[in-house]
Design a protein that fits this description.
The chain is elongated, with a radius of gyration of 44 Å. It has 3 domains: 21-44 and 52-113, Immunoglobulin-like, CATH 2.60.40.10; 123-204, Immunoglobulin-like (Sandwich), CATH 2.60.40; 213-311, Immunoglobulin-like. It is built from 3 helices and 24 strands. It is an alpha+beta fold. The strands form 6 sheets. It has a 5-stranded mixed beta sheet, with no helix packed on it. Strands 9-15-14-11-12 form a 5-stranded mixed beta sheet, with no helix packed on it. The longest helix is centred in the C-terminal third of the chain and has 27 residues, at 319-345. The chain has helices at 3-19, 319-345, 347-369; strands at 27-31, 36-39, 55-60, 66-68, 77-80, 83-86, 95-101, 104-113, 126-132, 136-140, 150-157, 160-161, 167-171, 178-188, 191-204, 213-214, 219-224, 230-237, 243-248, 257-259, 264-268, 271-280, 291-297, 302-311. The structure holds 2-acetamido-2-deoxy-beta-D-glucopyranose (11 copies). Residues 13-111, 212-310 form the Ig-like domain. It is a single-pass membrane protein. It is found in: Membrane. InterPro entries: Ig-like_dom, Ig-like_dom_sf, Ig-like_fold, Ig_sub, IL-1_rcpt_fam.
Length: 370
């Protein structure tokens, strides 16, 4: 091997191992079938810059005995500087691992998560991320740990591929919430492996409070019939802890006026809505022309809507009389129309009849005159 080639190999090796972050957390999770590594975290710096201390790797067996790993342990396991690499990691690899460099010890417990056939990611391996609505949402696929080996990167949202490029940059909307999976295809010894990193993105309402407001017109008249009941429905856009109430001039003991204790609330497009009903039973004159106000308020703002009950414009006759009147009116109209039609059809006969009447008259008068 020429010196140049040697240097190149050394350079590639150092770059590959240097770019990987060492793993200091003792509990590690990996996905079955994906490339994975453990890397020793150096605590004491080496005496010489050029020094590479030997590292020994152990796997703890069922009896907590350390069994040293070597290149013959498994065809899937390789050693690379301070890395222990799995190409790929399998379910049987779970367990406790430790490494020893000089007098330093480090150990990890590895959990290997079983691959699910029907899903492109595992819910046990997601990173949760919250983004405020209308704030910048950025999803990029970067994997510095394997950057030199990555051959192809693709991005999926809820397991559906996002068309190129494999990144998203926009203002967050509620519809953007979902599982975003970056799939890194890695080439190793001519074989392709996939590494999946999934982020669970939730779009949340911003911290800023909204100005509470009652929806609809600010003043409404409601037609009512005396003796009947009415339910006044007041709907508002508000924050969780805003005050929302009915107020009206009435003594508290009036059992006919009843306000719902709780508001009925729901979230639509990330905004909290609520309605509250005021029920007035057995309506009498005294409930008319009074204002029933519905108010939503917090420290910053107040909004009020007023309802007024008015007597429904009624025809002042009882229902059955009214119905009979209509029937009679219709009957008369039909009779008149029929009469006109008959007159038209029997026009000639009518004229003759008329003339005969007149002639008879004339003969009569004639007779008298004569
Ligand atoms: C590292 O460098 C020191 C001097 O800087 C030298 O004495 C030593 O032999 C070198 N060791 C290796 C492994 O090259
Ligand atoms: C490293 O760990 C092994 C077993 O856990 C123990 O026997 C050994 O003393 C440890 N060495 C150091 C330097 O802590
Ligand atoms: C994803 O985020 C939502 C909202 O925070 C949460 O309810 C859900 O449990 C998360 N899913 C997983 C797999 O953690
Ligand atoms: C790279 O490895 C470190 C240490 O295991 C890990 O914390 C980090 O999430 C990895 N980065 C990616 C993109 O997988
Ligand atoms: C990966 O790279 C090799 C050579 O660089 C290329 O032939 C192959 O098509 C690539 N594979 C994918 C999946 O992109
Ligand atoms: C890796 O993912 C690509 C799509 O990104 C897919 O076409 C390929 O079959 C996967 N390979 C393996 C070994 O899972
Ligand atoms: C009150 O009004 C709101 C909005 O118009 C509506 O969603 C709700 O169902 C109404 N409630 C009742 C009891 O009618
Ligand atoms: C209802 O609101 C109107 C207009 O804001 C106000 O003039 C009236 O005094 C209020 N009535 C009650 C009982 O609060
Ligand atoms: C309270 O309302 C009842 C029924 O409307 C009425 O009879 C009574 O006089 C009212 N009391 C007061 C103090 O206004
Ligand atoms: C109103 O809400 C409170 C607390 O949420 C609950 O304890 C109570 O039963 C509710 N009352 C009605 C009438 O729904
Ligand atoms: C309605 O009010 C009138 C007058 O106050 C009363 O005589 C009648 O009993 C009430 N009816 C009901 C159902 O409460």
């Amino acid at each position: 091997m020429h010196r140049g080639e040697l240097l190149l190999v050394f350079f590639v090796l150092t770059v590959t191992s240097a770019s990987k972050d060492c793993i200091s957390r003792p509990q590690v999770h990996a996905m079955e079938g994906e490339p994975f590594y453990l890397k020793f975290c150096e605590t004491s710096s080496p005496v010489y810059k050029n020094e590479t201390a030997t590292i020994r790797w152990f796997k703890h067996d069922a009896f907590h005995q350390r069994v040293e790993l070597n290149t013959e342990s498994s065809s899937r396991i390789t050693f690379n500087g301070y890395d222990l690499e799995f190409w790929p990691v399998e379910l049987e690899d779970k367990g406790t691992y430790s490494s020893q460099v000089r007098n330093d010890n480090q150990s990890w417990t590895l959990t290997v998560i079983q691959r699910k056939e029907h899903s492109c990611f595992s819910e046990k391996l997601v990173t949760n991320k919250k983004v405020e609505v209308k704030k910048a949402l950025k999803v990029t696929c970067e994997n510095p740990n394997y950057s030199e080996l990555i051959n192809h990167t693709s991005l999926y949202k809820n397991c559906k591929e996002v068309i190129n490029p494999p990144m998203i940059q926009k203002d967050a909307e509620f519809g953007d919430a979902g599982y975003y999976s970056c799939v890194f295809s890695v080439l190793h010894n001519g074989k392709q492996y996939n590494i999946t990193k999934t982020t669970n993105i939730t779009v949340i309402q911003g911290n800023s409070k909204i100005t509470p407001a009652i929806l609809g017109r600010k003043f409404e008249t409601v037609e009512v019939e005396l003796g009947k009941d009415v339910a006044l429905n007041c709907t508002a856009l508000l924050n969780e802890n805003d005050m929302f109430y009915w107020n009206f001039l009435s003594n508290n003991s009036d059992p006919n006026v009843h306000e719902d204790v709780n508001k009925t609330a729901w979230t639509f497009e990330g905004k909290l809505h609520a309605y509250k009903i005021l029920r007035i039973g057995n309506i009498t004159e005294k409930y008319l022309s009074v204002l029933y106000n519905c108010t939503v308020a917090n420290e910053e703002a107040t909004d009020t809507k007023s309802f007024r009950l008015v007597r429904k414009e009624m025809v002042d006759i009882p229902g059955h009389v009214f119905r009979r009147g209509i029937f009679v009116a219709v009957f008369i109209s039909v009779a008149v129309v029929c009469g006109v039609i008959l007159c038209v059809i029997y026009k000639v006969d009518l004229v003759l009849f008329y003339r005969r009447l007149v002639e008879r008259d004339e003969t009569l008068t004639g007779n008298i005159l004569k």
